[in-house]
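Consider this:
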Amino acid sequence: MANLNIQGKVLTPASGEAYTTALTRLSELSQLPAGYIVQPSNYADVAAAVKFAQAQSPPFEIAVKGGGAHSATWASSSGGVVIDLGTLRHVAVAPDRQSIVVQGGALWGDVYEVTAKEGLDVAGGSLWFVGVGGLRPAVVVLADGRIVKTSKDEEPDLFWAIRGGSGKFGVVVEFVFKLQGLSISGSQSSTTP
C-alpha cells in the first residue's frame, strides 16, 4: 500500500504499537485484526485506500473507524482494510456563521468545542465521543474511489441514503451542518428550527 502515494499512514500488524493503538475500540469485542489500517491525511488518501481494497482478488473488506465507539464487528475488518478517519477531524464555522464544516473523523466533542467558542450550536449527540453523522451537503468517497459531493440537489439519492441508510453507501469524509444560536446558557442544547 505504501506505493499508492498515500500521504497519511499505512499500518500493518508489523507496525507494532502504532497498529495496536489504531486498532483499539471502545469495545474489545469489535476489534478485529485488520490487514491494513489507513490513517488518511486527505480525501484522496481515502479514495486510494478504497481503490486498493477493491483492486484485490477477491476485494478486501473495508471498514471505517470514526470515533471507535461502535461495538459491532462490522465496524472493523479481519484481514481487510480499516480506514481510520480519526486523522480527519477538522471543524470550521463558515464565514457567514450559518453552517459548520465537519470532517468525517470529528467527534461531537470537537464540534462542541468550536461552536461553544462562537456562541453557536448544532443539533447532535450529547456525548463527546459520539461520531458525527450527516444532515446537510456531504463529501463521500464511493466504492469505485470517486470523491463526490452530495446534497438535496447534487446526487440526491446518495444524499438521502447517507442520511439514514447506515454506512453502506460510501465513506463520508465531510459533512455540513446548519448552525443556530445557543438556546440554553451553560449547556449543549438542541432545538428544531
About this structure: Residues 2-87 form a domain with the Uridine Diphospho-n-acetylenolpyruvylglucosamine Reductase; domain 2 fold (CATH 3.30.43.10). The chain has two domains: 2-87, 91-181. The chain has a mean pLDDT of 84.
